[in-house]
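Reopening closed ticket. The problem is back. First fold of the pair:
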Amino acid sequence: MVVTIIGLGLIGGSIGLDLKNRGFANKIIGVDNNINHTNIALLSKIVDEISDLDTAISESDLIIIATPIDATQKLLPNILDKIKGTIKVVTDVGSTKAGICKIVENHNNRKQYVASHPMAGTEFSGPLAAVSRLFDYKNAIICDEELSSDFALSLVKQMYETLNMKIIFMHSKQHDVSAAYVSHMSHISSFVLSLAVLEKEKNEKRILNLASGGFASTVRLAKSSAEMWIPIFEQNSEFVLEVIDTYLEKLKSFRTSIKENNKEELTELISQANQIQKIL
């Protein structure tokens, strides 16, 4: 098994480490237009070799696209063109799925593509952030599986099983709605809180001296890169705006209750929020 990973950042790099170490792939080929990333990936043994895109595709059985979502949308149709007449399989790991699936829905080689999203990550980016076991016991979403061939689906499932992930099947639009609530909004909340504190910190220099574990965990995601998240917000704007409106509504309820010193209402709001623990 020869696997090409396009995009040697946190996700692509972490996939490469475990697919090789766990025997899924005999060789990992890396493709990235950032020479620093390729050098680090080679030195860290994330990949066995670096190649240009065309050569990597020609030598590979499985091609994994692990680039920001806007780059993935440009790459995917081109790669599907290049694998015509082969049994090569393509998958991506993007955080939004409906837009990508729409672009290639009528492509002649659509069945060789599996739309997927491993629900794992950290606030860090680049190949230096890549770690083994990042995906263990997390969920991997496969979207619109009926549009992929049995062979392609089986290979991608085997890949995620090698990464010790639980596989869940969803429609691409359903995925994007859920991702907006459980992933994308978490990042927006972290960005906004960080901006609010930094704005206040201009006048009150001691605020961050009081920061403890709770604050650090809440704003951890604010370290995430704009390069990755702006395309996600753009592609999933319909559902992201929906969840922002819901968030603002709940925030307004807290504000009103605090302003009016309504302890009963605050207790009720917090009690409702506590119910998330039953799910998690």
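Second fold of the pair, where the issue appears:
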Amino acid sequence: MPRNLLHTTAIVDYRGVIASPGAILLEDDTIIQAGTPQEIGRPENASVTQIDKIVTPSFVNTHTHLDLSGAGIVPACSSFFSWVEEVVLPIRKETALIQESVLQGIELLSKGGTSIVGDISGTQEAAMLVQDSSLLATTFIELLGTGTSQKECVEQIQQLPEQFGVEPHSPYSCGLNVFKEAFSSGRPVAMHLAETLEEVEYAKNRSGEMTAFLQRMGAWNEDEKAWGNHPIDVVLNLAGDTPCIAAHLNYIEDAHLQRLAESKMTVAYCPRASAYFGHTGHRWQEMLEAGVHVSIGTDSLLCLDTPDRISVIDELRFLYKRDCPDPLDLLSMGTIHGATALGKDQSLVTLHTGETAGLLAFEVLGGSPLLNILESNEMPEWVHHLI
């Protein structure tokens, strides 16, 4: 089988700068060796390609909604509730446009340097489009059911084709029986959790603005009981040792840091989406320090600021500029943490020997290759386009 030896300005993954200059020996989609040009030498039957750029593995998007890509970017509304009513629900009703929206989302995801994704699909049709694409995808079917309507939701989980994960949408849109069935189903599980203060109030007391919203939507159910506790605590109790992904976690309490660290829950933090809705003070750095598994998502294109792509790289750059974190924490969140959460082998998004999910080439700005990735405004190219 033909081999290709890449000579690069530098090679970088979650561990930092592996070599500068760097070299990667590839055999089809498999990394045979990565290091300095001197370490690898000139293997027989290997063609040499010079790439004067910084090469990294692909990135991982742990939480996105590709079927909401068709409407493009939408300005922020006056509240989360008006956004759902005025933006999301009309899109969900346009079922004839699902295929077009998903295919557009897949293209924008690739332009953003991602090959592994956790996609939240409103329909099985959308989920199949994502699974049939070139992406390494874990797809979650979104579920809605409270009160007496939970029975239908539970039956839906039981009848879904085995390749799909499930997403009990949130504590205000799914009852406890739906969450219980999801966690006992043996499927990958994801959810929106502690996204708004209104959600927390609703879970504890079944009161507040969330109640009025559900009544307007015709989703209020008199048979539903208050959870009586913070939604994070309730969900962690239900999940037990079952791995799961929780998007957002904008509102946590001090005691949750240890609980999350001891759990098998991965947080899918969506920085630009949180900023779009006006959430501040996310405790993602404290979570990492406590040992919580934190990965990166983009949420939907609707709430981003890059109409030409859906990119985890933009999320990492946003955090780097705003919070001045350790760059290696960011690269870990954007690669290996997300891969593990989605049930994929971490090595797919590293420069370790083995199969790769893809390689990216970033422009060289000078100075630290690691900082070049985070300080640039340019998107990388896929290496296979350069060979």
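Update: turned out to be a display glitch only; the data is intact. The CA atoms of residues 95 and 306 lie 25 Å apart. Residues 80-93 form the longest helix (14 residues). Please close again.
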